[in-house]
Design a protein that fits this description.
The structure is a homotetramer. By secondary structure, the first copy, chain A, is an alpha+beta fold. Chain A folds into three domains: about 120 residues, Butyryl-Coa Dehydrogenase, subunit A, domain 1 (Orthogonal Bundle), CATH 1.10.540.10; about 110 residues, Beta Barrel (Butyryl-CoA Dehydrogenase, subunit A, domain 2), CATH 2.40.110.10; about 160 residues, Butyryl-CoA Dehydrogenase, subunit A, domain 3 (Up-down Bundle), CATH 1.20.140. Chain A has eleven helices and ten strands. Chain A has a four-stranded mixed sheet with strand order 1-4-5-8, covered by helices on one side. In chain A, a hairpin with a 2-residue loop joins strand 2 and strand 3. The longest helix of chain A has about 35 residues. Chain A is globular, with a radius of gyration of 22 Å. Chains in contact: A-B, A-C, A-D, B-C, B-D, C-D. At the B-C interface, strand 9, helix 8, helix 9, helix 10 and helix 11 of B face strand 9, helix 8, helix 9, helix 10 and helix 11 of C. Chains A, B, C, D: Its EC number is 1.3.8.3. Chains A, B, C, D: Its cofactor is FAD. Chains A, B, C, D: One of its GO terms (molecular function) is acyl-CoA dehydrogenase activity.
Chain lengths: ~400, ~400, ~400, ~400
């Protein structure tokens, strides 16, 4: 029977079974740890991470997005939408179940673009959780940020390979990663639309060093966000990922699905916020009533329900677009803006519903609220996506008019 | 091939084919008339209505929601979501293609609740467009409005049937209808949760009279909105629709899908608003640029795109809930609030984009903008739905807590 | 004693006395007529307009903004903020009390820029209400709209004066006006920042004709909005208002205060909307309670109160800026955006609170709601003002940084 | 000359001079320290606090709200609105200039309610900055929170005075304070509208102990927020503040102005956020342009400007209401809701404008953004104020109707 979580998706029963197992695993196994560390994922003990992963494998809920050949469940994007939201009910959940950023997106990229040898070397241990990876694209000003074409890090040809020089910033998960996928300019100048290449750089390469951990308002990404310097960093021809000068193109392969899977996980976390708020509102008495029965609290609760339902629906449609290859970039761009803003509103209202308790470190709410703020900025800020969405709409309209006039 | 309009729905190719035919019919046949009458559907000439219906039948796009036995395409709710949005691109479209309110919802109600004889008498000619119908539930203050239980109109048993007394208000399409489905109290007092019964009343019944046409800001419903008086209005036992005292229950049968089909049609109209705004913004020059290329206009365009995509997604999910019978009332309630507000925002931004022209009667925009305002009020105002949504969320939470504690 | 309506303004007692007299006049004399004509000011009978003006004079509340030499009360902008909001409680109020657009702003312009002879000829009868005037600046696309520099209407020198050619659009109050202040290009090309001149054109000039009345969603401006053609329209040197080529500069003299006085009047009308909504909400029963006591209605009521208080405060501050000549253009620009949007929200919530009744022509609400929509477009749409506000903020910041670094 | 910061207020030149001196002091002396401690006021070294206070006194900007007899400038609320916003440009500023919460409000309360002896003992050293104080009202659930009448802490009469028992929570500045103003129930039961009394409790009273520092998302209040236990805490009759059983009444004396001075300080901090965002936006390049010149960034900048202007205006009007004693409680309630939400929006947009940098600890922005979130909760959450505002509006309307009908 189709369930409320998976209406109309192919293979709904299997997906729903996996979602239910993930839900149980997250609530029974992960949540107690999340509470103990107060949501500070970035400094989880590595041994504890390994135990969590082992438990997830034992529960049959590890890396569901990966092909069965790599031990996953081969979920398509529609199915991921249902399951990842269960994993994302806590910050630790995706890490435990092998679908956390940036590894999840890097796995997809390697699957699509890497050579067999590269997949053997990096994707196989990534799939088992034995290594972690990072994606090194963004740079401090005036380099690549919202505008990737500002890319300044350079790779120049040397005998037998390439030498990379430059500085990367806000590289999530770099601390502790085994390999970095590094975007560097192999032709053209900062501002040019092309000329980028991806490289696989082992993190013990002597030409690469983590200069510092950037202190940020979020704490939900394992390994945090690092600033990295590449200084005459030598890599071989075999370390080029895909073809030279096609890096921006591959980035799109990764980004459209990756921002959608972010949406899925944050949807889960915002459901958790809402549940925490409901728990408070149904217990707290005020003005001779239960808080949850007061009209202005009901408005907050209803608006949360509406935002959660709409976010789920928008993700489901974008997932279908990605699976069907129809308008995928635009659909995931729209989903990113809508969902990042909707889950931010849900977290904000939940804090408000929880009153003073929501401001303290005594519930997970204030941690989650801060965590979600960042999502309106990374993976393209709302403003950049809106700009792109408007330009696409105008182009589409002009083509339609031209077509009608022909 | 799945298309952007119908991702993931069963029988997508057939639905998409019907949607495309409806789109062509609406743009080629209906739109020119809509422009001529400036969107004032309520005073379309009956002969012209008949011609439009004939043309829609000829184009194979008439009454797609009805069972094939009644000449329709037997679309489920998912399919209606795609096709009705095409019909709703204009105000006249649903009238022309036999899916306008209130006939569309009344047809569903008759199909589900009426006896074979009643279906023969009323549903058959409704299905062909030969008659129109109305649904007489709401009353002037202090009667049934947002709160249906305030129902005051009474039906009392008389020999061989019932006598109805009371006053109804804002009865859409009553002028010109052949039959009214009348909600009257058969037991209990105003404020009671039960005790309502539905009656089929021929509009030439001498005990029923249309007292006046209520002047409203909208003009998109054929026949307008009437105030009706029932004064010793005698009907037979055979005119009871369903069972006595189950009227509120049947109203829910009608209302959950009916408010969702409203959403579908208004989604279509808001797309039209957006297209009109894009047409203006891509032609108008200001500040040395095309309006559509200015940043603050791009914000309006992008927000329209996002709202339209989200509204479509929310409708699709609610349609799946209705078809699958899972959480249908709540899903359609959420959809009603979200979509009525989203399409209102789209219409408002479209007026803003069109500048002074959007304020005039020279485009259809100001007509559409007014039209959509009413949707946040009828079929339950946003506030009533939010209240119900919050109460359901709190109940669900309490059940979950009780279940977990058991 | 200072009152809530005039805290901290100079000469508060006199202002408050005038405000109270205006309030009584509007509620006792004007409101009954407003109800009878359902707010359709544009087609008020001229004789009735004359009677209203006579009554306002008798009540001592006519043209309070004019210098005492012209029979007014010589109110500064701070004082106007208090009194005009009382006049604007109805649409007819400003017309009756001689402070309606466009005459109010045109009076100010004449007072500041006109020669003694021009003032004698036009300002004197304007001040008594014996004539009306209009301000002919905006043009149909691709002419002057949000961007005044797109001005296309041309005045060319001829023997003894000028010949004007061009087309104006949305000229409020033109129908029935005695004189038009016409903006025409006397040098440069459309798009140039300068080169405009103002002319005083008698409306019976054979070179000027009203081509049509533009049908719009609002009905609150006496004389409506006309499209006007100038075809070899000859005027003398004495009909130049101010100096040649300084028209854009004079337009600013008029526009900054004029958009602020619009804010004042609309604030009054939005208070009326709120009062109508409160009247409904305190009478209507639903769900076993008075509507006004339900939580979600309370949210609407509170948000109205907040918006009304904020709009009043923003107007008061901008009025002080205009009177003190400190940052007046920016302050009135900010006020225009904030107030036009705030009063729009108030009107919208009031319609929502009034439910189905708010959608009908049976209260003034739906008329007022439509009326206010236009204010976000005319006098510069919100987007144009935001653009200008942002550019000023950035310039100010850059100057401050440069100053600090010097 | 009146300046943009103080239009229309009495004694504007003196106020503006003090505001300018405060601005210089905050930017030259305070800001460097604020940067060094990254805005974490709660753990500033006490010696450094003393140095800052000495410097503020030397600059003539200390405790401007206090009567001149206590060394202050005797500013009325209008004047405070201008000066406190300058102090509040940083989190440390109010602490340095003697106008921080809770001491600022406690000083006002002591000035109004305390006996001469109490003033001598507590107000005099508070006025010089030699001691700090706290206000112990709120309690953990199910005690006094948004609803103060839920007060549970009890004071019972004993020989020579009172014995206090109970638990307080989120008591700002308790750590390091010399005295606590404690609200305890002296009659009635939790939920009753009266029966509270204020006591002055020395913090070294053995019956009072700070149980813990509550970890919260904000860090801008010196001494943080403590949980305190009163366990047979004995105080004398001379320690009753004002009269027995009038505590709720005195709380209003303190709360209406105190929430308004909060607004003033947060307005200052939100101006700082906006300045930090402008600094980023005018330096950062993206998409071939300066960020500040891109349309969607301009929208954020303009909306900040509008919110800042509106917040300033709303504060100014409420200050006039407080000074004039006209509708003060309602005006400060409205101001609290509007300003707490407006400054929250400004901080949020500023973070968005600053992109990834705004998420880091490298600017003060993310600290300020978190800081402001709490203001929508304390001093009465937005929902409680809206409820009260709506109820007052409905009462006012009913009185007006009754009056008109009489």
């Amino acid at each position: 029977m189709p369930t409320p979580d998976a209406p109309g998706i192919p293979d709904a029963p299997a997906v729903e079974q996996l979602a239910a197992a993930t839900r149980r695993f997250v609530r029974d196994v992960v949540l107690p740890i999340e509470r103990r560390i107060a949501g500070s994922v970035h400094d989880l003990d590595p041994a504890e991470r390994a135990e969590l992963i082992a438990a997830a494998k034992a529960a049959g809920v590890y890396a569901p997005q990966l092909p069965t050949a790599y031990g996953g469940a081969g979920l398509d994007t529609r199915g991921q939408a249902v399951v990842f939201a269960e994993a994302g009910y806590t910050l630790l959940g995706p890490l435990a179940t092998g679908c956390a950023a940036p590894d999840e997106g890097n796995g997809l990229l390697l699957e699509r673009v890497a050579t067999a040898a590269q997949r053997e070397r990096w994707l196989a241990p990534l799939a088992t959780g034995d290594i972690r990876t990072c994606f090194a694209m963004t740079e401090p000003a005036p380099g690549a940020g919202s505008d990737p074409r500002a890319l300044q890090t350079r790779a120049t040809r040397v005998a037998g390979g390439w030498s990379i020089d430059g500085r990367k910033w806000m590289i999530t998960g770099a601390r502790g990663a085994a390999v970095a996928i590094v975007m560097a300019r192999t032709s053209g100048e900062p501002g040019d639309a092309g000329g980028a290449t991806m490289f696989l750089v082992e993190t013990d390469n002597p030409g690469m060093r983590i200069e510092r951990d950037v202190e940020t308002m979020d704490a939900g990404f394992y390994g945090g966000h690092a600033e990295i310097v590449f200084d005459g960093c030598l890599v071989g021809e075999a370390d080029v990922l895909g073809e030279v000068d096609r890096g921006f193109e591959y980035a799109q392969v990764r980004l459209a699905p990756a921002r959608l899977t972010h949406c899925m996980r944050w949807l889960g976390l915002s459901r958790h916020c809402h549940d925490l708020a409901l728990a408070h509102a149904t217990e707290r008495q005020a003005f001779g009533s239960t808080l949850a029965d007061l009209g202005l609290a009901q408005q907050l609760i209803a608006d949360n329900e509406i935002d959660l339902a709409a976010a789920r629906a928008v993700i489901a449609q974008a997932a279908a677009s990605v699976d069907d290859g129809v308008d995928a970039a635009n659909a995931s761009s729209i989903a990113k803006v809508f969902v990042s803003e909707a889950v931010g509103r849900v977290a904000d209202r939940s804090v408000q519903l929880a009153g003073a308790r929501g401001l303290t470190g005594e519930t997970l709410l204030s941690r989650y609220w801060r965590e979600m703020r960042a999502f309106r900025v990374y993976d393209g800020p709302s403003e950049t996506h809106r700009w792109a969405i408007a330009k696409r709409a105008v182009s589409r309209h002009r083509r339609a008019v031209a077509g009608a006039g022909a």
